[in-house]
C-alpha cells in the first residue's frame, strides 16, 4: 500500500469502526467495564491502552515499518521512558549535536541515575569505535541533527551496533517515516517528537517510540504502563487527523526549504548555511542514499549578532517561536531557546553561537517567506 494511502486510512480496526464512522471516534474514557469475571473487551484502563490511541500507534508502526509504536504525552516523555531500558553503570554513545532538551535529560537526569554518555560526531562513523566500552549498551543518533543538520549514516552505524551487540536508537523527528525509515536501515528503536511534523499544526504535544523487535516492544510496553506518560484520546485523534496530510505537507515544505536555502546561500549577510538538500552539504550524498528527501529544517549563521537579532525582531510573516514542523514558518534562536541549558563552552565549540538561527519552513508561499527575510535583513536607514 502506498505511503499516502496508509497515512489517510491507517489501521481500520473493527473495534474503532464498528459504527461506520469515517473519522476515528474519540474514546474519551479513563476505564472500561468487564463483561464478566476474568473477561475483558481487550481494553481495561486508558493508561494501558485506548482504542483511539491504538489506532494511532498501529498507523505509525506501519508507516515506520515496525511492529509496535507507543504514543506518549510529549517527545521528552518518550525519551524518558526509553532511558528506563538502561541501568546504573551503563554507557551510551550519542551524537554531539543534539536537541537541547535531549542533552538536558541525558546530562541532568540520566547521568544522575548512573548512566554515562560520550558525545561523538556520529556524522563520521569511524570515530565511534574508539568510544565503545564493555559497559556500552547503545548508540543514540539524531539525523539530521538539531540544530546544525549533521547527517549520520544509519546503515554504517548499524553495522557497528550489530557487531558489538548494542542498541541503535534513531531520532527521526526531522524527516519522519515519509522521508526516512531507520528501522529498514538497521535501527532498533525510532523516537519522534510527534509535536513536530507528525502533529504538524503547532496545536498539540506528543511523542513516539517505534520498534520492530518483539522483545523491545514488550519491555517498553511494561515501562509505559508503569510510568504512565500515555497520550490522551483527544490528542491521539489530533495526531490521526494530522498524519492524513503528512506526505503532502512535507513535500511542499521541502520545496519551500530548497528555494529559501538557495536564496540564503547567496545572501551577503549569511556566512554559513546548514541544509542537507544542497549539494554543498557534507552529508548530501549520505542523505540521497538513506533518505527520499531532505526535509524543511534550515539553520544559518549571520555576519554578526546584531543581524541575527534584527531578523528575529523584524520578521512579520515568519514567527519568532520555539518548536518546528508546523504549517507556519517559525524562526528560533537556539542559543537562547532550544539549547539554552547546554553549557556555553559546549555551545560555542559546536557553533551554536549568537549568530546562529534555525528556520522551520512552513507551507506559506516561498516568495513571501523570502520577502520577509529580505526585509528583515535590510540595512536600517
Précis, in short:
This protein has 381 residues and is an alpha/beta fold. The chain has 14 helices and twelve strands.
Notes on the protein architecture:
- This protein is α/β, with parallel strands linked by helices and 381 residues long.
- The chain has two domains: 3-243, Type I PLP-dependent aspartate aminotransferase-like (Major domain) (Aspartate Aminotransferase, domain 2, 3-Layer(aba) Sandwich); 246-377, Alpha-Beta Complex (Aspartate Aminotransferase, domain 1), CATH 3.90.1150.
- Helix content is 36%, strand content 15%.
- The protein has 14 helices and twelve strands.
- The strands form two sheets. A seven-stranded mixed sheet has the order 1-7-6-5-4-2-3, sandwiched between helices. A five-stranded mixed sheet has the order 8-9-12-11-10.
- The chain starts with a helix and ends with a helix.
CATH topology of the largest domain: Aspartate Aminotransferase, domain 2
Assign the CATH superfamily of the largest domain.
Answer: Type I PLP-dependent aspartate aminotransferase-like (Major domain)
Strand residue content? 15-25%
Low-confidence stretches: none
Count of distinct structural domains? 2
Amino acid at each position: 500500500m502506498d505511503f499516502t494511502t496508509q497515512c489517510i486510512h491507517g489501521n481500520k480496526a473493527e473495534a474503532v469502526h464498528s459504527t461506520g464512522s469515517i473519522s476515528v471516534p474519540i474514546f474519551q474514557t479513563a476505564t472500561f467495564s468487564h463483561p464478566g469475571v476474568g473477561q475483558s473487551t481487550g481494553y481495561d484502563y486508558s493508561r494501558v491502552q485506548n482504542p483511539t490511541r491504538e489506532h494511532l500507534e498501529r498507523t505509525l508502526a506501519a508507516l515506520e515499518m515496525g511492529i509496535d509504536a507507543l504514543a506518549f504525552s510529549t517527545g521528552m516523555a518518550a525519551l524518558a521512558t526509553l532511558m528506563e531500558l538502561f541501568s546504573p553503570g551503563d554507557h551510551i554513545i550519542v551524537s554531539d549535536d543534539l536537541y537541547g532538551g535531549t542533552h538536558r535529560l541525558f546530562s541532568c537526569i540520566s547521568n544522575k541515575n548512573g548512566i554515562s554518555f560520550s558525545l561523538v560526531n556520529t556524522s563520521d562513523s569511524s570515530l565511534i569505535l574508539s568510544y565503545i566500552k564493555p559497559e556500552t549498551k547503545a548508540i543514540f543518533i539524531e539525523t539530521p541533527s538539531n540544530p546544525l543538520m549533521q547527517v549520520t549514516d544509519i546503515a554504517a552505524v548499524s553495522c557497528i551496533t550489530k557487531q558489538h551487540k548494542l542498541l541503535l536508537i534513531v531520532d527521526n523527528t526531522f524527516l519522519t517515516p515519509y522521508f526516512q525509515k531507520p528501522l529498514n536501515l538497521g535501527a532498533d528503536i525510532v523516537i519522534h517528537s510527534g509535536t513536530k511534523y507528525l502533529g504538524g499544526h503547532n496545536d498539540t504535544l506528543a511523542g513516539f517510540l517505534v520498534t520492530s523487535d518483539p522483545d523491545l516492544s514488550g519491555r517498553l510496553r511494561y515501562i509505559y504502563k508503569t510510568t504512565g506518560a500515555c497520550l490522551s484520546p483527544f490528542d491521539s485523534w489530533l495526531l490521526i487527523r494530522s498524519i492524513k496530510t503528512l506526505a503532502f505537507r512535507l513535500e511542499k515544505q521541502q520545496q519551500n526549504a530548497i528555494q529559501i536555502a538557495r536564496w540564503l546561500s547567496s545572501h551577503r549577510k549569511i556566512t554559513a548555511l546548514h541544509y542537507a538538500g544542497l549539494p554543498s552539504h557534507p552529508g548530501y550524498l549520505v542523505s540521497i542514499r538513506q533518505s527520499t528527501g531532505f526535509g524543511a529544517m534550515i539553520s544559518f549563521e549571520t555576519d554578526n549578532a546584531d543581524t541575527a537579532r534584527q531578523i528575529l525582531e523584524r520578521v512579520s510573516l515568519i514567527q519568532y517561536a520555539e518548536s518546528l514542523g508546523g504549517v507556519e514558518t517559525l524562526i528560533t534562536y537556539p542559543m537562547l531557546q532550544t539549547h539554552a541549558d547546554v553549557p556555553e563552552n559546549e555551545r560555542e565549540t559546536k557553533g551554536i553561537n549568537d549568530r546562529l538561527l534555525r528556520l522551520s519552513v512552513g507551507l506559506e508561499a516561498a516568495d513571501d517567506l523570502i520577502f520577509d527575510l529580505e526585509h528583515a535583513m535590510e540595512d536600517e536607514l
